[in-house]
Amino acid sequence: GQGSSPDDEIRSNSTRGGESMRESSSRNGSSSNSNSANNNNSASSSSSSAAHLHHHHPPSHPTNNLHAIQHSMMNNNINYDNHVVAGDVNMNDNSTNNHNHGSAGISSSGSSRSTARFAAAGAGDANNGRLMMMQPQQQNQQGVTSTGSGSSQDVIMHNNASIHNDLHYNNPNNNLYHRQPQQQQYYSSSAGAPSSQAAASSMSSHHNNHHNLLTDINPNNTHYSQYSSITYPGELTVYSWGRGEDGQLGIGDTSDQDEPTYVDALRGVGVKQIACGSGHTVVLTGEGEVYTWGRGDDGRLGHGDNGWKYVPRLTHSLTGQIITHVTCGSYHTAAVSSNGDLYTWGGGMYGKLGHGSESGHSTPRRVEALVGLSVIDIACGSRHTAVVTNKGCLYTWGDKENGVAGHGDTEGHQYTPKLLERLSGKKVVQLSACGFHTGCLTDQGECFTWGEGKFGRLGHGAERNCHSPRLIETLLGKRPKQIACGGFHSAVVTEDGKMYTFGGGEHGQLGHGDKVNKVKPTLVQALDGIVLQQITCGWSHSVALTTNGEVFTWGNGDHGKLGHGNGKKVSTPQLVERLVGHLVVRVASYNEHTAALVEPQSIADGGSRRRAPGTMVPVSACYLHDMKEMVNDEEYSDVTFIVEGQPIYALRAVLAKRCEHFAAMFRSGMRESEAGVEIPIPTISRAVFLLILEYLYTDSVKIDLDHAVELYIASDLYQISSLRDMCCVIVRRSIGAENATYLLQGAHEAHCHVIKEIAMEYIVANFDVISKGEGIKAVSHGLLLEILSLRP
After folding, report:
1. Which positions ≥6 away from 714 have C-beta within 8 Å?
2. How far does the chain reach from its first CA to its final CA, in angstroms?
3. pTM above 0.70, yes or no
């Protein structure tokens, strides 16, 4: 039978073993419904990731002015309309009540390469040691690998280079869409879908290396960028659904989701590419950074450990590299840098990492055999890996059994990348792999497949294995533009938007209304008249994306991976209703979960695309820019605040409508409500007060880690719960071994109990690593005793 899992023992073993145990099973995947005990002790779901900060000198009491806020709150309980707006603040309130303006959203312009650090004023500084933001001066381009859970990579802070952590928050419910003028980015997905390429123009030419033993023999240096690299401006949001047992949905727990669910922890990370593996997920941001989450054994997440991560976590080991493409297989993950270098990590059995052995790696490691070549496309199966260079040459390595590697022999393993001689005269323009077979397209419209042929998944009219690439003759003249390989089936989309499927049909995954295998490509009649732009195949289900941004799914629906609100099997394509009204630009799947990249603005295309009832035209980026420009604009202001001795100008109407604190102030009849009166703000820094105003004006704001504590306290004071809660998100995402102790000390001194608890939890969980660093010296004796008392 055709199971829905790549390896039976993933679910049949009660313990979560490593790759060596799983790989020993049959590849027929006979059952997907056996349950395993869910052991969540190997990883903590409470911390998400972002930049780790390195301090040359520990900050000297960076939050002295936060004490003033606390004292002011306790001693100046000004009552507006019988409503206490200062003092009596419960700093232990960690609720997510967003009754003011909904949930604060995010958009990010970087995490690890652009990171701020805590900087304290000197003894004679007029700022009295306040937690100040150092202005960004240059981007960090260096990284060093560290050890321990959650601390795979540190960002080095040079004396003249402070690096700004730019996390930009907006409300996703408002469909806000942020982009830089004239900015073009490439958004794509992979794993079961086409392995997308960055545009050739974005790649820097990689110089020849005399150590390199591989040479592209194709003289044409132009790589045809096929449709899988589609240009979309701005930032994309992530939705996931299906099986969540390993945390692969990124929603913070292990629950299944039978409809697309917004991945809140990635708000604003500016995702442009996504790939699904067997129990884990990887995304690439517009800044060239990589986030991973889900099942962590074999080191496939790249964080230096084997722990599960239930929310997206930044892969710090790639800091200093600008990544242009990511993908993953069953047990390993891969990334391509802007200079064409390939990095792989995870389980190393069968030599699929390409490092010359079967050793696994828990952090990304460059594939040295490819240095000197410029990799632009990559695909990963269960036991093998394949790449395409900018000259259109194809290299493969890993398992040779049944012809998986494609080199004509079936004995042993290929431990390093090897040119696929059968296609040496062809220019490969698109590549896909899943399980134990591979497919590719050439610039001449040819489609080749090879590997295990059971169920007819190779499309050659039989179920025989193919030990080297073989042309699918049925597709000649059909002008294929994408091939997608699934666990037991394959699919091809043509230039005119039609789809052909072939292989195993036991679960209805071929979309023909039956459960019959097809040994040759067969047109999916149910989608006739619908123009497709992308197809992705999971182990036993399929996902199609139309040119109108709609998503259709079919096949095995267990665990809700079809997104229809139930677990039923469907043998013909069905619209995912939950995504109607959203503009989906890419989809991804691999095993038992599915993901989609959605344009936040969900722009309608001339009304041709169906929209959800009541969907409104979204706010434009120009409007947001104009509103931001009005912050601290004296010309049209009607209220003035004095912060740090300097005026800040605002509009009463905006503040009153957006914040009950200001509304109560302006209607109180007290001095602050009088026109023309300057209102002193003695206890909040100018930078943080401007952040509050920016959020009230635009519903979005860029938050630095070094402002998180003070902004939390200030937003709590002004009763902006959504902004307050997002400060916690920033801390959870950004905390690391190099900044946790400073954050803990600062939050403790500011009596900010919520953030203190977050920092304390992280330090206790990672004490073996943190205790060996310089940062531990920043912790007071009392706090250190508290940490030790909480250790198991």
Report:
1. 69, 684, 688, 689, 692
2. 46
3. no
SS3 of 227-290: the string is CCCEEECCCEEEEEEECCCCCCCCCCCCCCEEEEEECHHHCECCEEEEEECCCEEEEEECCCCE
At which residue do the structure tokens 């993953």 appear?
A: 328
Q: How many CB atoms lie within 10 A of CB 630?
A: 18
CA distances (Å), 455 to each of 29, 327, 401, in order?
Answer: 12, 26, 17
Q: Is 199 exposed, middle or buried (0-12, 13-18, 19+ CB in 10 A)?
A: middle
Classify residue 607 by its DSSP letter: T
Mean pLDDT for back-to-back runs of 10 residues, the chain (792 residues): 51 41 41 37 34 32 40 38 30 35 30 30 31 31 30 30 34 32 38 34 35 39 31 71 97 95 86 95 94 95 93 89 95 97 98 97 97 97 97 97 96 97 96 96 97 98 97 97 97 97 97 97 95 96 96 97 96 96 94 93 43 45 82 92 95 93 89 84 94 91 88 94 86 84 94 94 90 91 93 86
Q: How many residues does the chain have?
A: 792
Residue 393 neighbours by CB distance under 10 Å: 22
Find all residues with CB under 8 Å of 551, minimum gap 6, and list them. 543, 544, 545, 563, 575, 576, 579, 584, 587, 596
**Which tokens is 415 given?**
């431990």
Contact predicate 163/136, CB 8 Å: yes
Going by DSSP bridges, is the β-strand pair 466-471/447-451 parallel, antiparallel, or unpaired?
Answer: antiparallel
DSSP track, 69-87: HHHHHHH---EETTEE-SS
Nearest to 543 by CA among 501, 582, 506: 501
Distance CA 238, CA 681 (A): 39
CB atoms within 10 A of CB 626: 12
According to DSSP, the residues that pair with 584 across neighbouring strands are 598
DSSP character at residue 355:
S
* C-alpha dihedral, 226 to 232 to 233 to 235, nearest 10°: -120
Neighbours of 531 (CB within 10 A): 12
Token representation of residue 631: 């912050």
Q: What is the DSSP letter of 672?
A: G
Closest Cα to residue 643, out of 691, 683, 671? 683
d(CA 599, CA 549): 9
Burial zone of 22 (CB within 10 Å; 0-12 exposed, 13-18 middle, 19+ buried): buried
